[in-house]
Amino acid sequence: MKPVLLALTITLAVAACATTTTSPTGRRQVVGAVSEQELNQLGAEAFAQAKAQTPQSSNAQQTAYVRCVVDSITRQLPAGSQAGWEVALFQKDEPNAFALPGGKVGVYTGIFRVAQNQDQLAAVIAHEIGHVISNHHNERITRQANAQTGLGIIGALIGARYGEGAANTVSQYGGIAAQGLILLPNNRTQEGEADVVGQQLMARAGFDPRQAVNLWQNMIATSQSRAPEFLSTHPDPASRLSELERRASGLMSEYQQAQAAGRRPRCG
């Protein structure tokens, strides 16, 4: 019974730390497996590792371009979250970018193949910052912790009754089920939410929200292959484009107000 009691203790500890919050779009979230301070530390460590493992671009003009877009977007964040964002442009051909808790943004030089103007680059960066301000990293860590401890309890119970081999089988196939039914669907939900938050954020910063559609069209055009949606962490491309187009129309007034207020980024 000791493995069962240990698994129960771990689960209770995770559950005690978890809290229910509301995301920027009104979605219910369960977070709290790590504190904000711990999350920011994890972000800083991951960013330092990325800088140690991947060479940074020596192109000062492109680096300043990315920095300008990041600054324009982060100025629209809530007070206390605007300043101090660290930016790195990595020399890597992959068309990608990321943002981490603690105010870190990394962009790969390959993004310039698909982000053909500042508005399209803003769509990428605002999407990634959307993950951070929507607390997706904490939510993902909390869900992962709950999935692992839940499988630990089931495995311990099965093992106590049927032996270690049965417990290992539960752990192996249970992990596949958790990945497909819990973790990946949640990630797709987060991707859709980051689209919503990011497109709003870029419009408020004075970037044309319609360009998010063009950006993802370029992304799809450069993708050579794609896994089925149910095994992917990203929404279906056709659905994503449809949603981006629909929201862009509704965000035009906010974009025009930003422009009228003098928020007219001139990054490159």
UniProtKB/TrEMBL annotation:
Signal peptide per UniProt: 1-18
Pfam families: Peptidase_M48
Gene3D superfamilies, A to Z: Metalloproteases ('zincins'), catalytic domain
Cross-referenced InterPro entries: Mito/Outer_Membr_Metalloprot, Peptidase_M48
Protein name: Peptidase
Cofactor(s), names only, from the UniProt record: Zn(2+)
Record keywords: Hydrolase, Metal-binding, Metalloprotease, Protease, Signal, Zinc
Peptidase M48 domain sequence ranges: 61-247
PROSITE patterns: PROKAR_LIPOPROTEIN
CDD domains with a match to the protein in the record: M48C_Oma1_like
UniProt cofactor note: Binds 1 zinc ion per subunit.
